[in-house]
């Protein structure tokens, strides 16, 4: 794993969407688990945020993540800045981003996961989206280990 944006050995990952109330919150929880499971706590920094953050994480997301063993009740959506994104090695957008990739810079590996918004969805659909988010996060960490 090498950083393309600074000289340290820390890899920075941003997981973002517009509201930071669903997919990016799920992705962050899975990324934190992957980082710990792979022993990368001192090598991977995880950021999350939205371009227009909501007031709270979606209730359906809280429930679906609780079913998977995660308590996101203390999480609050936050704004993420272009400066933060520019400092990252990887940026994963969830599919509804207003991010202009050109503003982030060529050194950042930007991935658009094109995931459906779980807000206002039926519980079964939210769980399906959650499971796809988990697969994408695992694949991202597999890619990190291959670098």
From TrEMBL:
Residue ranges of domain Phosphotyrosine protein phosphatase I in the record: 11-143
Keyword Nucleotidyltransferase: no
Keyword Endoplasmic reticulum: no
Domain of life: Archaea
Pfam families, per database record: LMWPc
Alphabetically ordered keywords of this record: Arsenical resistance
InterPro entries given in the database record: Ptyr_pPase, Ptyr_pPase_sf
One record GO biological process: response to arsenic-containing substance
UniProt-listed PANTHER family: ARSENATE REDUCTASE (PTHR43428)
Name this protein carries in UniProt: Protein-tyrosine phosphatase, low molecular weight
UniProt lineage: Archaea, Methanobacteriati, Methanobacteriota, Stenosarchaea group, Halobacteria
